[in-house]
């Protein structure tokens, strides 16, 4: 244990003063040196304190002090799944396990009802007791269980102000009951004393005692608001203190080097160490001249340990935010710190942070040996006052200190936060913590990471194995798997296979994935159909098709996959690495270009698009070649070089080139940027590209492409059924498709990947970012082609051939050598020669024998002069030839060039006369062929390039043949009779042979067409729909793919069944291949055409269109005329799979062309649309079978129930008790797992007869075993017995009753009387415990026992949005249009009928209450008097509506078609309205039975009888509806009561009206009914009755509803009784006591005066308001609006000018200037608008000047 003299440099100090006689020392040190000299205390003082024990407390805790029993106060630093780490004073750390929190917490934790993160937050202060010493890992184990922590306390020690630790046992109505750890004593905290975040059962809570009795301790969570009371301080004893207690410390005036000596009460003294003082006092502790508050950080029973801390952020115990914010400094930030202290012996440096606003920072910094640069030279390198650049590496919460590092490697590291990492990176990690769920790491020194169990190893690991492999502090390799925003850390993997993966793409999002990327994947789910769900980096999920899946896949197995396609909705389809996407594309021609073609992004990161750079070229083993060069702004750029971008040779030795580059990098290489793929820059190093680009302007973006422009690129992709794609060089990332002529060869046969391409832009679509390139470019002039393309390309090839030879230790071609003949063969002579000391073998081709005399053979080993002709690096064969004096003779033939030998040396001749030319084998070319050359040009000593001219082959003549390859041979058209040339005609219903071209390139405008293009005679084009395929193909899974695979480029027999008009006047033939139609003779066209008579119940074939509708329904095609949709609940079982995690259902869409058998469930003949179901089973699906599991789709969600559409056709109800037995989580589950549109499996549980309702239960709830008998699933109300206790969920509360659901469809009632009125405040969704009090036939009565979870109704606050720029506002902030207007005063909605006629048919309203008349101008003017915010929101709605309308218009033709369709729809809709009115009584009866809770169904039923003048039947229907509608459906009830009142006012008598009115007030909201009836009377011109009702409203509701005064006043004014209306204002002001209500009333009455009375009176009233309340902007705005409307623009201008002259804040002035500017824009001129802008600018400038002056004064 540390002694006091070691901590304070004080040998000893007594409690209440000292004695001159020193205490006897234990050592031989003289007594005079044992302590500082002090003045003696007065004799009477010493006498008074003799009875007290002289003692001292230890102010510092060292490692050996962490023994069992030590109590302390820690700050939560890390929260794990099984515990928390606490930082304590003095840089110590303790760990609290989940089992040591509290008894209640442990129970809930074991039941998985609470987690550690629910109970602990970073920065939270937690008292603890050490239960085991520190281990080797430097952490002591501690407990915060109140039973352990407070076990030494007795009731008489629980003084006011003492801080103790507790745990929440239960939540009550008025507060919470707490466990204080003492027998027979309970803690209680009132709701007013709850922390801001609220309380939850089981969570720990640090509290301060307010008062205590023998059994109850009253506490508060606001610990820092008071100290230990004075009475307790006067009796303070050693064992009375608890960690967290706040003391008032009085400085004694005696300072020591370690801090300040303070008195804490009862003569006891302690030390406040310098490090525990506020930062502003640490340098000069002697400045502490008055009492200071300090919190106890450590204390121990029967010990002398006392550690105090007076830092204000630590003293604020309950304010977590004080300890989690470090003045905006985050881990990973760089800060400049100043050295304020050092401890050289321990290599510790203390820093201070830069001051904030001239004040010293409350946060300090510390760095220790492991984080310091030059830790052994602290004294010399870290002088006091020196500034150092540091990187923040962590926080010390308990000391309000940040840890920093000055090490250069840490300062320069790239990953400083979890967001900086890239998924796929391999990092070094240090084990930080081991939990059951996984291992926690630290990567890059201070970045947190976590590896779950499934990602730790390829093999399952036991807990023992994990502890041995991942010991605390050990370092391991890991790969970043996910960037976790929720945990704010990295998810990493240590799986051996993933770590061992070389290469592959990295991606943080789906958008970064490209087709063909290789990624590691983990199997997450295997579906019964064989489809496998894979997960890769950053939780990117995708599917692996059944045919691509590995054998016996298992969950968590590792596979390497390639990205096959990324769909627009973000869905990824994978294929295993050994399966190539391009091969699949060839097998599946239906896969579109968009999904297969890789399109790079433009280069960035210091790369200028179009610029040619010079740099170095290198390569590493197993990787692609790469280049390094200096980019823009002198930034070093690294780029990858794909193999096809490395060489100009068609048969390039890529392996040899890479081996050469691995040995030595090549400098001064010309580098051309290419597009960026997978976030990596790419480059091209072909030698020919820079030469071709010399005379061309680079293309930077697609907008620069114009038709006819010549571009240079490289062939990057070839898809047989799609085409050839060229990437434009320069880095723009543009990829164009090669234009293909029908008369020419297939372009995929004319090009190779990597081939240099020069083409002319044929067409451009900027919107789709696509373009076509014509390969037949610059081919008209043969001479120019040779000069411009053939020879420059050949020169680049020669240069590369020479480079390969020199770096392979061969002599370059053209070199003359002395060779020895080693062997003579029939056609070759084998020779040997030396080069650089190495013997090399070669061959000399022999000249074929002729009729001439053969010369004598040279002797073996004789020497001869030979020329190196060519080197075959694949076979290491060197070809040589003797010099000749004759004409040039060909000695070597390659794809890219020919080698000839002449008297002048070696001549290279081109075989590729154009970059786009792919040379074919020429049978005329043979070795020793004599040729003529022209255009000869020397390129090096003894080597030249030339073209062939004359002789058997002339290269100029060959250029015309090349052009034909791209253009093709156009056949002459056969002249028809009459001499005119034209196409061969085809006739309707004719039978022809056609050639299958492939899938249709474009779909129709209104639907996704599934057609195949077929070329008919005369080059006519026809289209064959998938529904017209031969029947044997329709049985295939995907008939479209099967048909194309069998018949592309083959001849088929088709019959024309009609013609379709296409654009530009052309026609397209509609075809069929159905044998019965082809063989039919002359029959009607309707029999050959597409089927169009479908009926409900028909089984038909439909074909997937691979798209979804706006309602997320699957779109299919039946034939070209009819389309269909399949709702998600009507999918077949193979397309519905249970999703992992939430229990919902994942549905898979149909592939394009996939055929399915479907049943027709509805037909819309007008739009030619059918609704289908893929469940074609013969059994009756419409039955609601109890116990059956069905699929349902959520289509309505409310707080009290969910409605689903079942696959069987019914609408079912899912209540909260049918979701889960964990009632506390029902609301969260409804929000997260049952949103709108969600598919879910439910069990048919119950049918309620009156009214008819179907109830369902979630499958886990139905089949699962309920652990709580009080929450078991109740389906039969007959099983309820009096006295049984259940848990239920509150549905709603109404006058006299609280309705509780205890089972699906089982609703019971808690009666409410005067004694228990407070239970009506229980909100919907609250969980309560009830007992069955009484069971009758009609209802069940309950007794409320307890409120388990209480929900409160939160009213939204009306707040104005503050300006974005408060201090120095900009002109834009003041003058720009407000996007989000201030909160408007909402107009109360009229109950029942929507007076805007939304949701009701005009016929219904006319029949019931004749309320559909158009409102007059005065009613329309009502909207003008609303607040400015409502006007803004209306304008925004109009703008949005206009935007939606504008989006619907596509082109002029479509508009005309739509207008014609609209007219037809209007005519048909009128017919439909008549049909609706003429519905039979039986049909209406069926409607109310199908949905008894729908008021509109009952209203329509009533209207039927009103039309028949059968008022009695209409009343009876209304009464039945009121009984049938559930009492919880208050809105529906109000609608029906409103219709009932309408009907009685229109057709009944006053007595019946009053009777209905009285009953309505008793059953629903009385105020709403009063207001409704008044409105009905007004519309019926019954003004006396309306006045009576409104006056009654004033008497009954004036205390709560200010609106009643203005409603009555407005009614009187409309009746020209202005005097009576004005007399209401004084009465209203007396009735409303609050000033704010006065303002509102006067403002409303003033507006009524403007509208219906005297404008001058209104002006007087508003003038008085703005004079008395000039800072209320809404008054000025109302005043200006009224003046503008009723007095003119001049009056409004003066009002706004007065308001803008006020000295107000920017936030308040902004709406004034905005209103003024809008007014002048509409009603003023340009000069007045300019004046307002100048005034606004002047105001802004003055505000900015004031801010600058204030800053200057502060500095």
Automatic annotation (TrEMBL):
Q: What is this protein called?
A: CBN-LET-716 protein
Q: Which GO biological-process labels does this protein carry?
A: rRNA processing
Q: Where is the composition biased (Acidic residues)?
A: 1415-1473
Query: Region labeled Disordered — which residues?
Result: 1-54, 1378-1490
Query: Lineage from the top down?
Result: Eukaryota, Metazoa, Ecdysozoa, Nematoda, Chromadorea
Query: GO cellular-component terms in the record?
Result: small-subunit processome
Concerning SUPFAM superfamilies, the annotation shows: Nucleic acid-binding proteins (SSF50249), TPR-like (SSF48452)
Q: Which domain of life does the protein's organism represent?
A: Eukaryota
MF terms from GO for this chain are: RNA binding
The chain positions of domain S1 motif read 69-145, 239-311, 424-495, 708-776, 1187-1261, 1283-1347
Skewed-composition ranges (Basic and acidic residues): 1-27, 1474-1489
Recite the UniProt keywords alphabetically: Nucleus, Repeat, rRNA processing
User: Which PANTHER family has this protein been placed in?
Assistant: PROGRAMMED CELL DEATH PROTEIN 11 PRE-RRNA PROCESSING PROTEIN RRP5, PROTEIN RRP5 HOMOLOG
Signal peptide residues on this chain, from the entry's feature table: none
Location within or outside the cell: Nucleus, Nucleolus
Keyword Nucleus (UniProt):
yes
